[in-house]
Specification:
Strand content: under 5%
Protein name: DUF2336 domain-containing protein
Number of helices: 22
Number of domains: 2
InterPro entries: DUF2336 (IPR019285)
Shape: rod-shaped
Organism: Bosea rubneri
Largest sheet: none
Length: 362
């Protein structure tokens, strides 16, 4: 009698009168036989094992089913019916084949996700390859935890619609923003949307963390600074007037001679373009943004930057003095001094970090 025939005879006897231990022993023998001959086995031969192992797997204990799932999980031609049966079992059994079995098609994975639940979906997100039908379904039905897991799988492939949904959800989900930011398959237009969402989130976090006494003033300064920078970009993108000053400042910076004192000296002497370039280079901001921070209608912006850089009130005062009109009047300067004193360095540094991110500078 052939090995298969002998096992089938033993199986019939065991199924009729055998204990759980005996069934597990027969299953182990069948699996050993399959694995030893699986290479090059034809599908009609595999189907015999599919029927026999599948029948036995329904009558064995949890521990034995887990072992079977682990042994078959990475076999390229494992009995497909058995693999699907194991994948629909409780998660301890299903996990090995859900994570690794190449015998599960996209249709299988979608059907299993629909029939089971989050634990099965999470196991599926760990697969080395995930096609668009699967990721679309996981995003649609999986909830936040599953969405984060599938977005974190670098080999997962997303449809245009699926990626768009992820970016839309990221607008209110900082962790998802960070995850999507690591992907290299994000279309350019969706990457822009993601960046805008990240900037809005950073602003919300900043405003929520501000001291109550400063929240209104800081938020207003950021808003007005953003508006004037946008206007500058639209109306006057010509920064040629800064050419000579920027070259001078870069030369000082490369020589290690650019610091707060130099900026204050330029501002005090009325060399506005040199002072603007100095602030931009030291604070890590663009020239349009810096120009409006210094010359814009809201003095809180320049106070925030100066405080965030750890500069003195005298430097901030010199920068304020570059403005025309009432920039040098005693009452205005006194109010600015009090505001500067009340700004905590931590708050100012958070605001400066936000301004850099919104400005698109490192």
């Amino acid at each position: 009698m052939s090995p298969v025939g002998a096992l089938l005879r033993d199986l019939e006897t065991t199924m009729a009168r055998g204990s759980s231990e005996e069934r597990a022993t027969i299953l182990a023998r069948l699996t050993d036989l399959f694995l030893s001959t699986a290479t090059g086995m034809a599908e009609d031969q595999i189907s015999v094992f599919d029927v026999v192992i599948g029948r036995l797997a329904r009558a064995i204990e949890l521990r034995a089913r887990i072992e079977l799932s682990e042994r078959l999980s990475e076999v390229p031609n494992a009995p497909s019916g058995v693999v699907r049966q194991l994948a629909l079992d409780e998660i301890a059994v299903a996990r090995p084949v859900l994570v690794a079995s190449p015998r599960l098609s996209d249709n299988d994975l979608v059907a299993i996700s629909a029939a089971k639940g989050r634990d099965h979906m999470l196991a599926i997100t760990e697969r080395p390859e995930l096609g668009e039908p699967v990721t679309d379904f996981l995003i649609l039905r999986g909830g936040r935890v599953v969405t984060h897991a599938v977005a974190a799988n670098p080999s997962a492939r997303f449809s245009r619609h699926g990626m768009g949904v992820l970016v839309m959800r990221a607008a209110q989900d900082d962790a998802l923003q960070a995850t999507l930011g690591t992907r290299d398959d994000l279309p350019a237009d969706l990457a822009e949307q993601l960046l805008a969402a990240a900037k809005n989130s950073a602003r919300r976090r900043l405003e929520a963390s501000l001291e109550p006494a400063m929240a209104g003033a800081v938020a207003g300064a950021i808003e007005r600074s953003a508006e004037t920078v946008s206007t500058e970009a639209e109306i006057n993108g010509d920064l040629g007037k800064f050419g000579v000053a920027l070259a001078d400042i870069k030369g000082l910076n490369e020589a290690g001679k650019l610091d707060e004192t130099v900026v204050a000296q330029y501002a005090t002497s009325g060399a506005g373009e040199h002072a603007i370039c100095g602030v931009a280079v030291l604070a890590g901001l663009s020239l349009p943004a810096t120009e409006h921070i210094v010359f814009g209608p809201d003095r809180e912006a320049v106070l925030l930057v100066a405080r965030g850089m750890g500069w003195s009130w005298e430097t901030a005062k010199a920068l304020i003095g570059l403005r025309k009109g009432d920039g040098k009047s005693a009452p205005v300067l006194e109010r600015a001094r009090l505001s500067f004193r009340n700004l905590t360095p931590t708050t100012a540094q958070r605001v400066l970090g936000f301004l850099r991110m919104r400005d698109g500078t490192p």
